[in-house]
Design goal:
153 residues, mainly beta, four-stranded mixed beta sheet, four-stranded antiparallel beta sheet, elongated
Length: 153
Amino acid sequence: MTPGCPVVGIVTDGATTAPVANAMVRGWFATTGVSDADVGFQWQEDVRTNAKGEFRFEGAPEGVVKFLAFHEDYYDFWDDRTLVRGVENRVDLVLKRGVVVAGVVRDSVTRRPIEGVEVSVSSILPIGRRFATTDAEGRFRAPGLEAGPALFN
């Protein structure tokens, strides 16, 4: 068995350079075989950052790997990095704080708040979609969205 590529990195806040604790970092890699139905090696792994924003993957594949970082207060980030076997690969990721969308869901006839409604908010692309459930007063809060036009469902 061939050993994988070790990857270390840190996730930081783009405005303050402070480490982002408890961010989810996903490494993802897939190869396509000779035909569309023939898929080669696939790898996906999720890790969480520690209090210092640090993360580590022990056995990522060699080649171009997509890294995604998620945290509820930031909008999602992804980047492709080329990993090399035999060295410790450094992948630092910088997140930008997102905006918070908050509101109240009301019955269109009675105007009373509705509890338990799942609200989906996303940018024009469905990447970075956030979900929130209304409370007893019909309120919801969806953090970590990119500023700009949004879709509500």
